[in-house]
Amino acid sequence: MRAQANGRPASSGIPEATVARLPVYLRALTALGESGLRTVSSEQLATAAGVNSAKLRKDLSYLGSYGTRGVGYDVEYLRYQIAREIGVNQDWAVVIVGIGNLGQALSNYGGFRSRGFRIVALVDGDASRVGEMHGDLAIAHIDELDRLVVERGCSIGVIATPGDAAQAVADRLVAAGVTSILNFAPAVLTVPEGVDVRKVDLSIELQILAYHEQRKRTPGADREGLPSEQVVES
Amino acid sequence: MRAQANGRPASSGIPEATVARLPVYLRALTALGESGLRTVSSEQLATAAGVNSAKLRKDLSYLGSYGTRGVGYDVEYLRYQIAREIGVNQDWAVVIVGIGNLGQALSNYGGFRSRGFRIVALVDGDASRVGEMHGDLAIAHIDELDRLVVERGCSIGVIATPGDAAQAVADRLVAAGVTSILNFAPAVLTVPEGVDVRKVDLSIELQILAYHEQRKRTPGADREGLPSEQVVES
DNA sequence: TAGATTGTTAATCGATTAACAATC
DNA sequence: TAGATTGTTAATCGATTAACAATC
After folding, report:
1. Is NAD included in the keywords of this UniProt record (chains A, B) (predicted)?
2. Does B115 touch chain A (CB under 8 A)?
3. Which terminal CB of chain B, N or C, has fewer other CB atoms within 10 Å?
4. Is there a contact between B180 and A217 (Cβ–Cβ < 8 Å)?
5. Is residue A18's beta carbon less than 7 angstroms from any atom in nucleic acid strand D?
6. Of B86, B106, B133, which closes a domain?
7. Residues 6+ apart with CB under 8 A from A66
């Protein structure tokens, strides 16, 4: 029973599935706002976010009662409330570990800065790459990690190393005080309680697509000839 | 009721949550096999994959009965069965659209080729980049997309364009015959029935981490002082 | 007031987990 | 046989959805 009986937000009692959709709503609201829209119905916003309106309203109800019956939601007000709830109004310092192709791409990605994420350090284990400039950041050696995390106040670390280096990097990040990790390395990480890890695994995503693709080609022996289903991932 | 009463696999009746974990088990089995292990218990494999053993056994039961009671699973046999189920034994031709930093990183990513994904075309909308070589592939213009998809048999397309180009690219991919799309662009895609879309959104991942990070810092007013929870994403 | 739309309830669905009978 | 471990059951939990009373 996570939702509260009264109209007040449950602050931390928001279901994970809802938390994962809030950034999607935020993005949709930003786009709608930029197009000049002042008020939006749950139906409109749901369409823009790619969900159904019942789910959207249920999700928003965890934050509070920010809509007006018969009217809809004020775009700017709702956008602000969601941004505050997520914490995007703050500035988050991020360190990237592993400056290969992917690490470089991430360090150049414009979508981070505009959403409150500031990349403040680039770290690599290869000593020959130390000093190499990317934007206005120089690559530092992994041995500097602890100092950099503390000095620059990083609470989020991104791991973009090969799989076999990932656990050691995670250990170092945690020891330095990082409590949130975004892991692109193909490895299962073990971290202490209180540290959040999210995993983005490119070849796993392709493999999931391949699974469904295979079934489109070989109409399943034990299933009636159904039209191949759509599996849109949230 | 997706599991069948008998021991036979339900081929296409595997729950999505299970499908998403099969590649994780596959990777763990490959690593265990390379380390010389011949037989593995559900407990060992579950640990290697970062799940609990009950979930692992339930997941595997959708594929069939590939273990031996009192003994465990034959590593190589189970690895093969999962690979076959996913479709990784086949070769999948992939086209990448949008050769910016991320597209380049993806085109160089070694983890794809070794898992049956062959990148066979790089496409970009910027005419001035056409001909530029990446590995042994030259960038082609987006107008060549249809021809390339047909000639090279692509069934999977990767979108790594800016958000505002993504829907048009998706439309072109679908028109050319692509039925599975991995979307890195920050945009909600609309596709016809029968086309699968999976979305990887880097700033959404960071925002989800930020949400939890914020709560670690401001011990929620309406929650007893609990140790900040771990949210390891599968 | 009449029409529109939210916020919430309750039913349903799917995923997780513990426990254990089956069986190697 | 005794010990180990799978495969399955059933309980529980969390997420989704339709429907509608509340209310602007």
Report:
1. yes
2. yes
3. N
4. no
5. yes
6. B86
7. A60, A73, A74, A77, A78, A81
Ramachandran angles phi, psi of A178, nearest 5°: -70, 135
Q: Is residue A3 part of a domain?
A: no
Which residue does chain B place closest to A223, by CA atoms? B12
Q: How far is the CA of B54 from the C1' of D12 (A)?
A: 14
Within-domain flag for A11? no
Residue with more model confidence, A67 or A220: A67
Q: Which nucleotide is nearest to B54 (CA to C1')?
A: C17
The answer to whether the beta carbon of residue B47 comes closer than 7 angstroms to any atom of strand D is: no
Q: For B230, phi and psi rounded to 5 degrees?
A: -95, 135
Residues A96 and A36 both lie in one domain: no
Q: Is the pLDDT of residue A146 over 60?
A: yes
- Domain, as residue range, for A21: 16-86
How far lies A187's CA from each of A85, A193, B184, in Å?
Answer: 31, 18, 21
How confident is the model over B146-190, as pLDDT tens digits? 999 999 999 999 999 999 999 999 999 999 999 999 999 999 999
State whether A92 and B213 contact (CB < 8 Å): yes
**Helix (H, G, I), strand (E, B), or coil: what is residue B13?**
coil
Residue B102 annotated as lining a ligand binding site = yes
Q: At what angle do helices B75-86 and A202-217 cross, to 10 degrees?
A: 70
Report residue B219's pLDDT band, with 50, 70 and 90 as the boundaries.
low
Cβ within 8 Å of B, A 174-193:
179-182, 186, 188-191, 193
Q: Is A137 in the same domain as A55?
A: no
Chain A interface disruption, residue of B91, B180, B189, most A CBs within 10 A: B180
**H helices of chain A, where?**
16-34, 42-49, 53-61, 75-86, 101-108, 110-113, 145-152, 163-176, 202-217
* pLDDT averaged over every residue in chain B: 90
Query: CA of A15 and C1' of D14: distance in angstroms?
Result: 8
Rounded to whole angstroms, the distance from the CA of residue A42 to the C1' of nucleotide D22 is: 17
